[in-house]
Design a protein that fits this description.
This protein is an alpha/beta fold. The protein has nine helices and nine strands.
Length: about 260
């Protein structure tokens, strides 16, 4: 599938990796929907893309809210038409041990189940919600010449396979994304819709850019090769390959410089 003139609905794309994907896809002629929890930021990113001559719009989407997701897709489809491309970048994380002892007071506490569930709802259920609703929309489309109706790329994490201390909820949510990739690809294979997932390592995103230089240097040094943080455009180009290479289906691919995360 070529990107030109295709509608790409990208969640979590007002900043970071999602914004880089939107920028790359727009440069290839795709019509972009910036779907983000922060509507103001989504509109600003869409305006930046339109300034380059691209077709782009921002919509407010909370992936944990059924009505919000429905409204976001409806608004985007009314303006641009049914999307053939879905990129799931919306997500969050935390770092709290399952159970621990306060070193100063000796108080024993555990990760509240509600906090665990919140991460699952955003990262895993939110991703599935967008996939299911987008795929249902893609089924209304006529297939392209090669039989394709659409393509979906999800964002997991290397934490799905080697999560660190405090990442039980985050790792579980990302492992869930990898675990459902092949079954969903099989669910949709008869309709010409492909599904793939990227597992990024340590990337230079806005969240990490606020860390002290020595912390970023240490993280970069932990990568076998190349000894640096991943760049958002490298992620974007892999997402592009997963969309444009028609034989790419049902795969979960690490993009991490060969890193394997230590316990902490």
């Amino acid at each position: 599938m070529q990107l030109k003139d295709k509608v790409a609905f990208i969640t979590g794309s007002a900043s970071g990796i999602g914004k880089e994907i939107a920028t790359l896809f727009a440069s290839e002629g795709a019509r972009i929907v910036i779907a983000d929890l922060n509507k103001e930021a989504a509109d600003a990113t869409a305006a930046e893309l339109r300034a380059t001559g691209a077709q782009a719009m921002g919509v407010a989407v909370d992936v944990t809210d059924e009505a919000s997701v429905d409204a976001g897709f409806a608004q985007a489809r009314a303006a641009h038409g049914q999307e053939r491309i879905l990129i799931n970048c919306a997500g969050t994380g935390n770092a709290v041990k399952t159970a621990s002892r306060d070193k100063a007071t000796g108080e024993i506490r555990h990760l509240p189940v509600a906090n665990f569930d919140r991460i699952i709802q955003i990262n895993l259920v939110g991703t599935f919600r967008c996939i299911a609703k987008s795929a249902a929309g893609m089924l209304t489309l006529e297939p392209l010449a090669d039989g394709e109706r659409g393509a979906i790329v999800n964002t997991a994490s290397v934490a799905a396979q080697d999560g660190q201390m405090g990442q039980a909820s985050y790792s579980a949510s990302k492992a869930g994304i990898t675990g459902m990739t092949l079954p969903i690809a099989r669910d949709l294979m008869g309709e010409g819709i492909r599904v793939n997932t990227i597992l990024p390592g340590i990337f230079d995103t806005p969240l990490l850019q606020g860390a002290p230089d020595n912390v970023k240097a240490a993280l970069a040094a932990s990568v076998p090769f190349p000894k640096r943080l991943g760049q958002p455009d490298e992620y974007a180009h892999l997402a592009e390959t997963m969309i444009t290479n028609g034989y790419f289906n049902g795969e979960c691919v690490r993009l991490d410089g060969a890193i394997r995360m230590a316990p902490r």
